[in-house]
């Protein structure tokens, strides 16, 4: 997966957050942003099956809300 290419596609409309451990992606969250790019909604949350029920998704959701406090759940 080319993270830099994906990030370029998402700039301006989406923010992408990822949790990594030992250089391996564990989870990702996608946020759809509204103008002025400081608020939006959580539109996707994906976890590796091995990391489910270990708090990784909650950590990523909390970190996403910390960085974009006006986010709402969808």
| Number of discrete domains | 1
**How confident overall, as mean pLDDT?**
80
For the record, the CATH architecture stands as 3-Layer(aba) Sandwich
Shape: globular
Per CATH, the superfamily is Gcn5-related N-acetyltransferase (GNAT)
How far do the termini sit from each other? 26 Å
Q: What is the structural class?
A: alpha+beta
Question: Major beta sheet, specifics?
Answer: 4 strands, mixed
**Helical fraction:** 25-40%
The CATH topology name reads Aminopeptidase
Widest β-sheet, arrangement of strands: 1-2-3-4
The total strand number stands at 4
Number of helices: 2
Work out the oligomeric state of the chains in this entry: single chain
Low-confidence stretches: none
CATH class: Alpha Beta
Q: In sequence order, what are the helices and strands, one letter per element?
A: HEEEHE
Strand content: 35-45%
